[in-house]
Request: fold
Amino acid sequence: MVPVPRRVSARSRASASPELPGPDWVLAGRGLVDGHLQPIEIGISDDGTIVALGRDLHAPERHDVGESVVLPSATDLHVHFRDPGGPADVENFAAGTIEAALGGVGLVADMPNTRPAVTDASRLEEKRARVTGRTAVDVLLYGALTATSRVDQLAMAAGALKLYLSPTTGVERPPTRAEIPGLLQRAAASGLPLTVHAEDPAQFVLEPPPTSLSDWDRARPWTAEAAAVEEVIAAAPRELRLHFAHVTSARIAERIAKAGHSFEASPHHLLLSRASKVGPRAKVNPPLRSEGERAHLWELFALGGIPCLASDHAPHAASAKDVAFPLAPSGMPNVETMLPLLLAKVRAGELDLARLTAAAMDRPSRWIGQPRGRIALGHRADLLVVDFRSRRKITAGDLHAPCGWTAFEGYEGIFPREHYRAGERIVLAGEYIGTPTGVVRRPEFAA
Ligand code: DOR
Ligand code: ZN
Reply:
């Protein structure tokens, strides 16, 4: 068990900072040092801060995980926890953050397209009240960028802004093209990060109704995504902290990288294509692309060319999905499986662990202004213990999403064995053992 925290006067050898207290306990295992797995020891104080790093640390208690790997917990920039509005048998903050904890995610950024959508400060306050005392991990709340007049008050309380360029669950009327430059200006002036769902609805071909994943890709083609990306890049003020959600194509990724903005790819676009046999359960926006497009996107990700990984966890009831293709809503659950799927790729030799930690932990945290995602002195001890030998086949029955299904049935996953939140163990032997003490976070750009 993790020792009961207590302050000690003994100071460790190795790289302890003179301003930090001595460690109360030490977590020893293997970790990434200069890109290679090496034995590491992490000294943690009673308030859950990393206060020493090195070898031969001394503290009253020690937890040695042997050959297992200690990683920072992940930051997921893109979840839809459907709270408020539910339905609660699909998702909510309590269940969604437990899924996150079990999947190795220590901070989730929740999208504003709930019912009602978070379009003003009072809706944001209502949502904040639903987080308090209910979440297993920390939460950052997006506000929807819909009207210039609301940006300033929304920006006082939101953690980030989200701009939808096409209609989506909960946001039926997105801003018009003419409104976009003004909205981007206001977003820039607010200082908050802005994430854009970039698909140009003028380029959708929705008649006749698409009846397969291939039809869906043709109906909302990558060119609609590319056009929206160009429009936003052209209108974005220089000082805007801009990020593009769920990029599906390596060409678009390279374009955004050239323009110097941030972006993410989601596990379903990296691992699944429109050739999937999953049917309407794999219907997502933007759509799954061809196998060739998916392979290029994966190649770019494995080369380190995609800065962030984000789940776009967007559950819907199985009964809503298992209907004729045109009637099924878009979106799939992913927050519990994102990191396990990618850790299995590391074990399979298809992905470098340092690239994965950069994309899942470090860069998303930096973009959202959070001092986390690295094993570093002064950071909170938000850590995972991963045993790369404990691979298992993903099956919905073992997962915790109330919606009860996954598009990754049968895929290999490596789930964290332990998850620490500020030095407190919240997952042990793959089981959630924490309490709902997550808090709402806002960017700390000075950090
Ligand atoms: O597939 C999607 N589902 N894409 C989105 O942009 C929204 C999401 C949802 O909220 O269901
Ligand atoms: Zn989304």
Summary: Confidence is low (pLDDT under 50) at residues 1-13. The domain at 14-71+374-441 is CATH 2.30.40.10 (Urease, subunit C; domain 1).
